[in-house]
Amino acid sequence: MSPPYLLAIDQGTTGSRALVFDERATIVASAYREFKQYFPRPGWVEHDAEEIWSSCVRVIQEALLRAKIPPQKILAIGITNQRETTILWDRKTSKPVYRAIVWQCRRTAPICEEKNFKNSESFFRSRTGLLLDPYFSGTKIKWLLDHVPGLKKRAREGRILFGTVDSWLIWKLTGGKSHATDFTNASRTLLFNIRTLRWDEELLKVLKIPPGILPQANLSGSIFGKTSPGAAGLPAGIPIAGVMGDQQSALYGQGCTEAGTIKNTYGTGCFMVLNTGSKPLILKNGLLATVACDWRGRPVYALEGSIFIAGAVIQWLRDQLGLIRRSADSERLIRGLCDTQGVYFVPAFTGLGAPYWDSRARGMITGLTRGTDKRHIIRAALEAIAYQTKDVFDLMQKSFQQGIKELKVDGGACQNNFLMQFQADMLGVPLIRPRMIESTAQGVAHLAGVTVGLWQKSDLEKFHKEDRTFSPTMTSRERQKKHQGWLRAVGMVLTGQRNPRSQFKERGVK
Known about the structure:
Elements (H helix, E strand, L loop, with lengths): L4 E7 L3 E7 L5 E8 L11 E2 L1 H19 L6 E8 L5 E4 L9 E2 L7 H5 L1 H4 L2 H8 L8 H11 L3 H6 L3 E4 L1 H9 L6 E3 H4 L5 E2 L4 E2 L1 H7 L8 E3 L21 E6 H8 L8 E5 L3 E8 L10 E6 L5 E9 L3 H9 L9 H5 L10 E3 L17 E3 L7 H27 L6 E4 L6 H11 L3 E4 L4 H13 L5 H7 L2 E5 L5 H18 L6 H7 L4
Parallel strand pairs: 1-5, 5-13, 9-12, 14-20, 20-21
Antiparallel strand pairs: 1-2, 2-3, 4-7, 6-8, 10-11, 14-15, 15-17, 16-17, 18-19, 21-22
Helix pairs in contact: 10-15, 11-13, 13-14
């Protein structure tokens, strides 16, 4: 019998990737394809769900072709995805009723600020571990039901289905036979009770969302359905055996399945996740409580700090300003530049996430002089990623109270050695970069393999290999001086009525 292969689908915010893993968890082949981003109004971000699906079909076929294996050799499929992005589609035709509203989209800020919803924020937090913010799926669903003509009636009649991107892909891969999600994705909707691990009827009533549109929520390590004949060029019957939201998948892929382990993913956004074990730690300091996985795909809990713009700021320098031709140029161009000459860049293009949660904040570059050139702005953009991460890390340290001695990193931007060294300097702890930086895809591939019995925990431990450790070299005095300048810059973009310094103090940001 020929050795089995696993197919991982990593559907991200700006593109889709498919990877083929062999029985030793080695990547045999991969393919990636970007798809169009839509910005119909300031602060609005949309995707075309059919374009997402088409991009997945293309990369699956390309990856299999590059691997030189027939699709019949795929033992199981794992799916990991951009979270919170909201898709509604017709149950009968499988056609989306509107473009997908992306997690970055801020159009529902007015809903979150309505008095009756604002008064319910502690109620939402106690059950979901989340803040009442446009980031999450619940208010996006409400907006669609309220603004698409006739949609609310169709939803009540059972003709409309909701899903985050994982549910959409499961639906398409199974030919409309499975409408499902996993606990990690469900926990990001603002509709899921993370204590009971069920959709919460009272929360649904507050947002006036009919429960019949929701997918079935399962363990991340489950069989979510099997491929229908010809879906994405695959044969019938391949099990979808692992599903996780991208950040929980990266946590799993880094081997952070025990309490106290922590990772930070440097992707479009930046997401720090700390495994807190068997009980949710629900706080009021800007950190989110969410569901993650143990090594078998069973639910555990985590704290998360979500930074909306990280690698996307480098894409912005490339695509909107033309300061660089390729994202990788950012490190090369600032080589030999000792500092930013006082320039700070707050990339609040879609508001600020943790720990500030200001949906109306907007981006700003401050400290410009006649001596400023593009290199200073590029370096300030990279430093901004590290500063935002420090704000979250400091809060994690304070909240967990057990001491975080190292941080595991992954994602495309962790290949930037300048950024990683500056990050270690700002945190004052070592950063560990793995050889396999595609931890998101790796995580769901590992879980799918565990679910179908291919691997055990001892196998997973062997798969994790270190590439490099970045140790801090900056003095605490210099670190503090640089960070104070960052906090002053952030204070300029916050839109709250209170003094910005008091907000930092309340959130535990030094």
